[in-house]
């Protein structure tokens, strides 16, 4: 990902408890650990980390998949049910029909 694309991502402040620790935004020099530039919470004086909201959304999607909540977030599926769903999706004629023809899947 280019530096310009990274700058275009939306930024959210705060660190909720379900946010992964590795979602710091990266600037052109790497991680920005400088306390001089850190945004401080006016009430507590603690540094507030900037979050990459796209990375957080991807992390939440992976977490939901691992917990078996990918199809229905209110219901946890067993491993057997998850495997059945994945096999059905992989062998569905609708999904197979959308293959990119340049992959020559029929060969």
UniProtKB/TrEMBL annotation:
<protein>
    <recommendedName>
        <fullName>FATC domain-containing protein</fullName>
    </recommendedName>
</protein>
<dbReference type="Pfam" id="PF02260">
    <property type="entry name" value="FATC"/>
</dbReference>
<dbReference type="InterPro" id="IPR050517">
    <property type="entry name" value="DDR_Repair_Kinase"/>
</dbReference>
<feature type="region of interest" description="Disordered">
    <location>
        <begin position="1"/>
        <end position="49"/>
    </location>
</feature>
<feature type="compositionally biased region" description="Polar residues">
    <location>
        <begin position="14"/>
        <end position="31"/>
    </location>
</feature>
<dbReference type="InterPro" id="IPR003152">
    <property type="entry name" value="FATC_dom"/>
</dbReference>
<feature type="domain" description="FATC">
    <location>
        <begin position="75"/>
        <end position="107"/>
    </location>
</feature>
């Amino acid at each position: 990902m280019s530096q310009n694309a990274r700058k275009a991502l939306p930024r959210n402040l705060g660190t909720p408890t379900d946010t992964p620790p590795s979602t710091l935004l990266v600037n052109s020099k790497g991680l920005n650990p400088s306390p001089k530039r850190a945004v401080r919470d006016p009430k507590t004086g603690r540094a507030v980390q900037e979050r990459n909201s796209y990375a957080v959304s991807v992390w939440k999607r992976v977490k939901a998949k691992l917990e078996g909540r990918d199809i229905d977030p209110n219901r946890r599926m067993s491993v057997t049910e998850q495997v059945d769903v994945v096999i059905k999706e992989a062998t569905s004629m609708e999904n197979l029909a959308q293959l990119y023809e340049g992959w020559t899947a029929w060969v």
